[in-house]
Design a protein that fits this description.
The complex is a heterodimer. Chain A is of the alpha+beta class. Chain A has 2 domains: 87 residues, Phosphorylase Kinase, domain 1; 233 residues, Transferase(Phosphotransferase), domain 1. Helices cover 32% and strands 11% of the residues of chain A. In chain A, a hairpin with a 5-residue loop joins strand 7 and strand 8. The radius of gyration of chain A is 24 Å and the shape is globular. Chain B is mainly alpha-helical. Helix content of chain B is 73%, strand content 0%. Chain B contains 19 helices and no strands. The C terminus of chain B is likely disordered. Classes of the chains: A alpha+beta, B mainly alpha. The interface between A and B is large, with 56 and 63 residues. Chain A: Its EC number is 2.7.11.2. Chain A: Keywords: Kinase, Transferase.
């Protein structure tokens, strides 16, 4: 089959979304940009090449005057099928409450793997009635805009011919997530490694913020570890763009242990500071290898009050003096006992393995008043990065030994879900179907 | 990285920015393709009704049938899409709580983007527009319950809204983010206020008068950006800052030019050509907005023209695509039916692949002991 040229409108290669601009004058610009890795290039190119073995293609290229016309797929549906045909289902990786995750390979490059997140249909008829799930839409929306080394890349979206579930084709990342790495007692790491990891995460976060996107669910479990040691922020189901000043935002975001005080107090207006707080909690957790402020929440409760109490004891009491306006926040509750804000000495005792500049950075990242808290950019400009030890080269970062299937857990989890809430239950995956 | 680089990474730039020629060609292509499909579909429809009668003589009629349908022109399609955009704008206030204008603007841009690769002859905007607005409420964090959403709309059921949702997403190439110039305007206005004392147009005027003028210009520009600009191709052809500056230019020319003059006066004179280019671009966009304003003034003419196109569209609407709900349902059934077949196919394919792999492994022929036999 000769490749169709751009001049003749072919039913196979019409104006399908993914190839439409390929021939246009725009594509040279697109190519010069660091938008997607070369693997995407292959992916996009395959989409424009009709697969001669695919039966839809042959039926479509025939004149439509046949007695019994072939199913007249929409352009959209045709494209959908072409995208689907690019991939081979490889194996099941696991599932969470929110999505099933499979490993797919490219038909044209069978050794090239992708993770495919199949969003589950909810059983709740009320939810089903709403059409495409809002979290799914958000994740699609933001991943489409964010292309960065430290953010998980999205390549394609299609709906399965079988069950019309939305399939999101994303980077396959086999090293598990940061939470597993922290919990893996056989994996030893040091200050230089932490510095390297924090650097990667903060660069990813700064990129989000400079694109006006708040992640709103940062936690070790949402940071994936690539085979080459690269960390990637994942799970953008709770993300949103910065709201304009008059617009309210929900405070019911970010997993409890990583949620900043302003959200616990019900703030409707906030900014990148919420993600920086989460990053501070991740840094603290990396150092001590356990969550820093972690109220053991019961499944029956939401836990904000308990978390605030733990925070009060861990960092001191938020008051008007140290955070002007805090008492005006909608859900402000006075904290007792009154504890003075923790000083340098406290941080030195609690985070012994962190060096002094590192502790200074950590403190600046978890200042109560979000206006005084460091921004993502401020974090990256901290002197810690220019001091010894240098961050470990990412190829030499410590790794976990076993990791297959972990991506499923990180990706399939429901947003804001706290795994430890269901200790041992949520993480139990059936890998029986695996090879 | 400067702001421009950030913008160039956005899907709005990567997928939805065109030169005027590209944009026109795109629409011509879509129109051409849709027209052919409509002719084919109509002839199929006629053929099936003919064969139903078992009348052979009428078969000949079929040949002419394909050519006698007058399809919409690109311009007429644009008019119909514009009508849909206007309808979305009108929907703003039918809900208990009026929708914020960025939700409305996003929905309108969804509709415009969708009709770059789809023709109103295939899918009428009246079917797509309610879905576009609903999708925008979801993606712009202004989520409304689908039943509440449908309540004030006449003759719209939740199923009507849901059925084209995925189709729309595909038409949008799954890029749901729209960058609005109205957002850029707010930043621009703060900056103008900041530099107000240095602007040549305010020659010693007192602060109150200056602020008043800026605020007034901003208000008018804001309204322009959320209404008339939405009816144009501005988003496809210009960047958000260019559009907001053009809207300001249309609103208060001296203010805008003295602001731009002031900005450039602080920079190296060597970038003079850039200033010239910027002014040309902004003026081009301003012309687009002015043209829209004057066409809007001719309300009666537009109405008549729309009615004519509407009648014409009735005759050339793709008969196989009019019922999106039925299509969505059929697709769902088809998918269930092919389920079993697909399983079988996949198994077979795996087997063949395995066999091929085994064969490929034997490039030097079968093992020697087999040859010996």
């Amino acid at each position: 089959m000769a490749p169709t040229t751009s001049s003749a409108p072919s039913p196979l290669k019409p104006l399908s979304p993914s190839n439409q601009n390929i021939q246009s004058a725009k594509s040279p610009i697109g190519r010069s940009l660091p938008l997607r890795k070369p693997s995407l290039k292959t992916a996009t190119d395959t989409s424009s090449k009709p697969d001669p073995t695919s039966h839809q293609d042959t039926s479509m290229s025939r004149p439509p005057k046949k007695r019994k016309p072939p199913p007249d797929y929409d352009m959209a549906e045709l494209l959908n099928r072409q995208i689907e045909a690019k991939y081979n289902k490889d194996k099941y990786l696991g599932s969470g409450t929110y999505a099933d995750v499979w490993r797919y390979s490219l038909v044209s490059h069978p050794s090239q793997f992708f993770a495919v997140k199949k969003f589950k249909f909810t059983d709740d008829p009320k939810q089903r009635e709403m059409g495409i799930n809002v979290d799914t839409l958000r994740e699609v929306k933001y991943l489409q805009e964010l292309s960065h080394e430290n953010i998980v890349g999205m390549y394609d979206i299609f709906s399965d011919a079988k069950d019309s579930r939305i399939h999101m084709v994303i980077e396959y990342i086999s090293g598990g997530d940061l939470e597993m790495l922290i919990k893996d007692s056989s994996c030893a790491y040091g200050l230089a490694d932490i510095k390297a990891w924090m650097g990667m995460m903060l660069r990813g976060l700064y990129f989000c913020h400079s694109n006006f996107v708040l992640h709103r669910d940062l936690k070790p479990g949402n940071v994936l570890v690539g085979e080459d040691g690269t960390l990637k922020l994942a799970d953008f189901g709770l993300a949103r763009s910065f709201a304009s000043p008059e617009q309210n935002m929900t405070f019911m975001v970010i997993t409890l242990w990583y949620r900043p005080p302003e959200l616990l107090f019900g703030a409707r207006h906030y900014s990148g500071g919420v993600d920086v707080w989460s990053m501070a909690m991740i840094l603290a957790e990396l150092v001590n290898r356990r969550p820093f402020i972690a109220f053991p929440v019961e499944p029956s409760q939401t836990g904000e009050i308990g978390q605030l109490d733990y925070m009060n004891r861990a960092l001191g009491t938020p008051l008007e003096e140290n955070w002007p306006g805090v008492t005006k926040l909608p859900l402000y509750v006075e904290q007792v006992p009154k504890i003075p804000l923790k000083d340098k000495r406290f941080f030195e005792q609690v985070f012994r393995t962190l060096d002094e500049p590192g502790r200074d950075l950590l403190r600046a990242m978890c200042i109560y008043d979000p206006r005084k808290r460091l921004t993502a950019r401020g974090c990256l400009e901290h002197e810690w990065w220019s001091l010894d030890p240098r961050p470990t080269d990412k190829t030499r970062l410590p790794k976990r030994s076993k990791e297959e299937g972990n991506m499923a857990m990180a990706l399939g989890r429901a947003q804001g879900e706290l795994d430890d809430k269901f200790k041992g239950v949520a993480k139990k995956l059936d890998f029986g179907g695996m090879k | 990285m400067i702001e421009d680089d950030t913008y160039r990474m956005s899907s709005q730039y990567r997928l939805w920015s065109y030169s005027p020629e590209q944009l026109h060609n795109q629409r011509v292509n879509t129109n051409h393709l849709a027209s052919e499909k409509v002719r084919a579909a109509v002839s199929r429809a006629r053929l099936s009704s003919v064969t139903g009668n078992g009348n052979g003589e009428q078969q000949q009629h079929k040949g002419s049938a394909v050519t006698d349908i007058e399809t919409l022109t690109v311009d007429e399609e644009l008019q119909i899409v514009r009508w849909g955009c206007q309808k979305i704008l009108d929907m703003k206030n039918v809900f208990d709580h009026p929708l914020p204008s960025h939700v409305i603007s996003t929905a309108i841009q969804y509709l415009r983007r969708f009709y770059l690769t789809n023709s109103p002859m295939t899918y009428h905007p009246k079917q797509i527009m309610v879905t576009a607005l609903y999708l925008a409420t979801k993606t712009e964090h202004h989520y409304t319950d689908i039943n509440q959403y449908c309540a004030p709309l006449t003759n719209v059921t939740p199923e009507d809204v849901r059925a084209p949702e995925f189709l729309l997403m595909q038409g949008l190439r799954f890029s749901l983010d729209v960058r609005h110039p109205a957002r850029s305007l707010e930043g621009g206005v703060s900056e103008i206020k900041l530099h107000a004392s240095a602007l040549s147009c305010f020659n010693g005027e007192d602060r109150a008068a200056v602020d008043k003028r800026i605020t007034k210009a901003a208000e008018t520009a804001r309204r322009l950006l959320t209404t008339q600009v939405q009816m144009t191709d501005a988003y496809f052809l210009y960047t958000p800052p260019q559009i907001y500056l053009a809207a300001l230019l249309v609103t208060d020319k001296t203010l805008t030019t003295s602001y731009i003059d002031h900005l450039f006066s602080r920079l190296d004179t060597a970038i003079g050509p850039i200033k010239q280019k910027l002014l040309e671009t902004i003026n081009g966009c301003a012309d687009l907005i002015r043209a829209e304003q004057s066409s809007e003034a001719d309300g009666e003419g537009t109405k008549k023209e729309l009615a004519r196109i509407g009648r014409k569209l009735k005759k050339c609407q793709d008969p196989e695509k009019t019922d999106i709900k039925a299509l969505a349902r059929a697709k769902a059934t088809e998918k269930r039916e092919t389920d079993a077949q697909d399983e079988e196919k996949v198994r077979k394919k795996r087997r063949l692949e395995r066999e091929r792999a085994e064969r490929d492994g034997e490039v030097f022929g079968p093992e020697l002991k087999d040859v010996g036999k």
